[in-house]
Amino acid sequence: METVTIVTFKVKGLPEPIKIASQYEPSINQIGKMISDIVKANNMSGDIQFKKFLQENGQKMFIYEIGGTKCVVLVEKLEKVIEFEN
Predict the structure, then answer these.
(1) I want to staple 26 with a disulfide (CB 3.0 to 4.6 A). Which of 13, 30, 33, 39 is the partner?
(2) Is residue 86, in this structure, part of any structural domain at all?
(3) By the 8 A CB rule, do 11 and 66 touch?
(4) How many domains does the chain fold into?
(5) Is residue 55 part of a domain?
């Protein structure tokens, strides 16, 4: 069965969540790099601190703090169950 991983970054103060689709689940280092890139792209300041990790039913949630601003990273695996033909 084919799967896709959706990584969603929700940063307090940014208007829209940032979603990235991939065939592979990102490592902790890759998530940290993505958060660092978001901080630079949005001219945010402050240290990036990991706070909490939660896991349930194939979903993972990482909670970070960027200089007092909350950042939630949701990693979801989605499976293609049925494929329709044209």
Answers:
(1) 30
(2) no
(3) yes
(4) 1
(5) yes
